[in-house]
């Protein structure tokens, strides 16, 4: 699944700009793992992530002629994957956001048990979050967006972004406590 020896990334991209299916396939294979890693963070399951990856690569191939080589390709690809995942999630969130959340009580901020986990543990726990919480947690905690930016991206009130993030963290803590209790460990 690696690119053949001697074919540089810029050559693959250049050939993709001409519409070469062979080089599109090479590009897909070369960046599939990277793309899937990003998509999994925003997806409920692997099938959902695969759809995000495939949709993102369709967008890549349709717009690769506008790719500016002054910007790292991975950064450009990452932006497309994240935006594709968010667009997909936004459609689903419209139905979930009908609950009046502005008047909801915020959940407690509790302990910092999540800070003691490695990335793989956190990704596993994150898959248990509802879609809206997963998306906002990713945008805020991992991708570094601010609540006002998240509000614009998802077309929700800024306060909703804060509440969903707080709920996501609380749910992750509860899952962690439950798993630790089931394994006889003490978690604070």
UniProtKB/TrEMBL annotation:
Keywords: Sigma factor, Transcription, Transcription regulation. GO terms for biological process: DNA-templated transcription initiation. It comes from the Bacteria. It holds the Pfam family Sigma70_r2. Residues 27-92 form the RNA polymerase sigma-70 region domain. GO terms for molecular function: DNA binding; sigma factor activity. The keyword Oxidoreductase does not apply. Residues 121-172 form the RNA polymerase sigma factor 70 region 4 type domain. Belongs to the sigma-70 factor family. ECF subfamily. PANTHER family: RNA POLYMERASE ECF-TYPE SIGMA FACTO (PTHR43133), RNA POLYMERASE SIGMA-70 FACTOR ECF SUBFAMILY (PTHR43133:SF46). NCBIfam families: sigma70-ECF. This is RNA polymerase subunit sigma-70. It comes from Mucilaginibacter xinganensis.
């Amino acid at each position: 699944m690696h690119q053949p020896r001697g074919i540089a990334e810029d050559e693959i991209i250049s050939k993709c700009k001409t519409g070469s299916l062979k080089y599109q396939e090479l590009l897909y294979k070369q960046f599939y793992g990277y793309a899937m890693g990003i998509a999994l963070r925003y997806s409920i399951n692997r099938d959902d992530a695969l759809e995000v990856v495939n949709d993102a690569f369709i967008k890549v191939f349709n717009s690769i002629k506008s790719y500016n080589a002054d910007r790292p390709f991975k950064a450009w690809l990452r932006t497309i994957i994240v935006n594709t995942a968010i667009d997909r999630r936004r459609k689903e969130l419209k139905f979930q956001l009908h609950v009046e959340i502005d008047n909801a009580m915020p959940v407690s901020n509790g302990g910092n048990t999540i800070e003691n986990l490695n990335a793989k543990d956190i990704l596993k726990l994150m898959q248990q979050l509802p879609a809206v919480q997963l998306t906002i947690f990713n945008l805020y905690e991992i991708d570094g967006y601010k609540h006002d930016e998240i509000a614009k991206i998802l077309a929700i009130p800024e306060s909703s972004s804060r509440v969903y993030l707080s709920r996501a963290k609380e749910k992750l803590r509860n899952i962690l406590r439950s798993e630790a209790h089931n394994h006889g460990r003490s978690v604070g």
